[in-house]
Amino acid sequence: MRRLCNDVASHVPCEPTRHQGWDWLVNDLDLTLEQLARKKLYKFMDCIDELTRIHGDAAFVEDRNGIFDAHDFGYRMILADSGVGPRCYWKIHTEPERTDESMTAAWGS
């Protein structure tokens, strides 16, 4: 968990964690992710790419894609073998076209 905190912190960038205990590390990770969320989109995507390379596998990628889909992120990760370990690339995930009726219902008009 400490390594994960420090991997994310390197993309913010901010100081690595100095904590050892689980609760402290969870708190540090939460704060670091909040800082990462305020950065430009490419910083977030680079961080996810590096976490996939270091910690990930196909299950990791599918789990992230499930989260991205649930939050209408608009991108999907595609796992590829770069010859030096797993690597991902990003594919734009487009939503189905909406009809005027569905848009009206969604807007409540």
Rounded average pLDDT: 83
Q: Roughly how much helix do the residues carry, as a percent range?
A: 55-70%
| CA-atom Rg in angstroms | 17 Å
General shape: globular
Enumerate the strands of the largest sheet in spatial order, edge to edge or round the barrel: 1-2
Query: End-to-end span in angstroms?
Result: 48 Å
Unreliable parts: none
Largest sheet: 2 strands, antiparallel
Number of structurally distinct domains: 2
> Number of helical runs?
5
Q: Give the percentage of residues in beta strands.
A: 5-15%
The tally of strands reads 2
SSE order: HHHHEEH
Outline of the structure:
This protein is an alpha+beta fold.
Question: What this model shows, in words?
Answer:
With 109 residues, this protein is α+β, with helices and mostly antiparallel strands. It is 55% helix and 13% strand. The longest helix has 16 residues. The radius of gyration is 17 Å and the shape is globular. It starts with a helix and ends with a helix.
Secondary structure layout:
Elements: H1 2-9, H2 22-37, H3 41-55, H4 58-70, E1 75-81, E2 86-92, H5 100-107
Antiparallel strand pairs: 1-2
Summary tags:
single chain, 109 residues, alpha+beta, 2 domains, two-stranded antiparallel ribbon, 13% strand
